[in-house]
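Q: Entry one of two.
A:
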Amino acid sequence: MNNRVRWSSDGANRVARGVPGLSGAGGVLIVLLLISVPGWGSDGVVSIVSPKSGQTVTNDVTVTWTQEKAGSADHVHVFVDGAGMKPVKTGTSTIVRGLANGMHEITVQAYSREHEPLEAKASVTVKVE
């Protein structure tokens, strides 16, 4: 079986040859391209501006993010090492206080008005000294 697609033209139509079911006039080839971009979902985009991943921070760190809302996105929740903090309804930053020394993962995730978690989120790992 020939897996190559060869296109030819009769002046009015483009014809795919070499693909079962697509040979001959009127054949249609549909290509679906799926792209996954971290932080992007049908509910917008969340990006952490600071701190940067790998950065060394103090026990009290200001987390700043951007959120492009779409779909049912309403606000964000901030998590440290998977444990949730209270929701952030307004603004684009919050202070995380009292982090113990060591490595920590900070995640900012979009939520709906009903406090349902959405796909849009971003995470960074920081070292506290």
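Q: Entry two of two.
A:
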Amino acid sequence: MSQSMNGMSMEEYEDYLKSFDEAFTAAPVPERGNYSAVPDGRYQVFVDKAEIRTNTNTGGMELSMQLKILSGEYQNRIIFHRRELDNPDRMSYLRGDLEVLGMGDVQRISQLPSQLKRMLDVKLEVQVKHKPNPNNPERPYVNVYLNKRLEERGDTQDDDRPF
């Protein structure tokens, strides 16, 4: 009998989930929309997810962010933004992104894992640009640039204005 992390066995999970079998069987499979990349342009987004993970292509470490579009025709669509973490030639791009995210105070890359939560819900203006991929013309490269952090109402500090 195998144990899961919370102490329940696989058999106990199966027994519990049996009560949902009918609902699962009756549930329709949702239609899949067109999940192609958003077109070139500027978008207002917020950071919905940020994690450090292994890049599936290179095997190196990367910062991966999911940016959710706030409004317009592409509202709620996801833009993926990644930065290599173990390539010294790319560190300036990472530092620039951290500055835009309001995290210019991160002094060492080793601090980044403990600071990821600070990225969440930050609102940004980003620019998406597609570039031809000579190895696979049907899948162009998608470059995402963090242009600026968007100010939120109520973020201004008291500045002695009477109103």
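A: Comment on entry two: The longest helix spans residues 91-100. The CA atoms of residues 41 and 126 lie 8 Å apart.
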